[in-house]
Fold this protein.
Amino acid sequence: MERLRQLIHEIHRRSLWQVLTAYVVASVVVLGGLGTLSDVLRLPEWFSPLAFALLIVGLPVVLATAFVQEGGPRREARDVQVAAPPGGAAGLFNWRNAFGGGVLAFALLGFVGTGWILFGGGLGGGSDTGDVPQQATIAVLPFQNNSPDAENAYFADGIHEDILTQLSKIGALTVISRTSVMRYRDAQESNLRQIGEELGATVILEGSFRRVGNQIRVTVQLIDTETDALLWAETYDRELEDVFAVQSEIAEQVAAALQATLTPQEATRIARAPTGNLDAYDFVLRAQEAANRFTEEGNEESIRLLNLALELDPEYALAWARLATSYALRPYAYGGDPAWGDSALVLAERALELDPEEPGVHWALAFVYGNNGWHQQAREESLRTLELNPNHAYATNSIGVFHMFAGRLDEAIPWYERAVRLDPTGFLFRSNLSSIYLLIGDTARAVLLRRENLALQEPGGVLALRMQADLAVIEDGDYDRALELMEQRIEREPASADLRFDAAQAAFGAGDYERVIEHMTEGLRLSPNARTGALIHGLALIQTGREEEGREALTEVIEWRREQIAGGNEESAPWLDLVVAYGALGETAEALDAFDQVIEIGDIWRVFRERYRQALALSPLQTEPRFQEVWRQIEEDVAEMRRRIEAR
């Protein structure tokens, strides 16, 4: 008993309790710092436990040193008067040795960490060992509208889209596009695991929105699709004026829950409010709902509402950008006057002046440039869009389009594949990818992708019908069946100019030139400004003996395409139309000169499209040696491209 009291007395006298406390506190601080460092540098999971083990080993060494040296390193020798312990312990257990050992231990730890960063996959490097956290793929499902007023559904949709966009700005996340998630808007009792499998999403964010007067409630929860585990949830009860702050907070909290590190630039972009005028914001959300109907009436309504928003806030850059996109769609999708496209460029440039850091602004410019055939400028703006929003599916697709128009089919594929991953249930990007394989002669893969697209469409819908007609041609060369399908749909939608133009194309493939003229005439009556099918219309007129009408139609095509070229259009389509039109008019020299331009542009894929193959088959150019030589060279280039693609 006496020895125990003496030991306790010595422990107190030699300050071991203070040394132990200081060591534990310092260890906690060190481990906390290493944990943060591990997340930032993406060090392996065993790194922090290794540091903990070193600290455990060091504890008895520190306590022994404190006992031998009678206290901490700052204790003066004059404070105690005891004899040195036997066996040279005082020489071994001293603070210089203890500190030196600690420094060596953590130097070893630092050496191991540095080696991992350089050679083991740290700092975001690739690894399939499981030691580095994989980038999460998140799908943000449409929010349920719990507002007493059902008309607030547009606001719930707008909040959903804005939160999705905020998350898309985070490079450490892969975010599934709005196009793909909206198909689950009306799903009842959704199976989140199944949705995750269909979208390739590892986590799902779902939520609800409620608005009563100026009060809003946004409830969200983040769920692991594999385990159904709730990763994070929150309810935000705020004033309407805090709506942008709520969106930013949700994006930040989701990123934190998924251990996705935000760069300072990303954090700044997410925190920015697009406008200080909530009424203007309300008009923009209503406009977006109208635009998402993808009808001419919806486009007109969108333009009206966006103009109202800009009356309230003339510096609302995103409103200018969306107005530019709506203008650009007028001639592109709804048969409007080409002057709409010129105005769209002015609007997009105004948006850029107001906010050069907004990805939506750069995408509007890319869209306008692309519609005008200015693909180099469209590419630059698409790349800038992706710098600000790495998950922008359309900008990703746009880069693929640029490579395809440049004739680099193999370089287009990775961009189209990435776009499909971002929009797995959309049809456009998979269709573009399928076209690449079709152009290089890999029909089996092209058909597989098109059938995947068909399976995602509503049975009997316009898109499904077009895809069935497309497959009839690709698989069996059956233009008659394609025409039959299109005409069945026209019976249900006789006022659709687009369906008429599609039917005219199928009729041209089938060699039924009278029906080409019939469908083109009706399509132009429904959409007088449309240029779609103008070339085959002129050719069909000539083939049916209406020589004068046909020559007049082809002359109009030449004038239109020359005007586009003079305006800076960089595509080969205008030149190819000139090749066919000049050839049909017997102007061989002009046709061959235009063909040289096609080759110089590099956009050789268009030559292999059915429309041009059929049109060229009717041309007297087929017998020209110069034409035949260039055609052989194009086929060799495409074959080489296929070899490169198959070697990927």
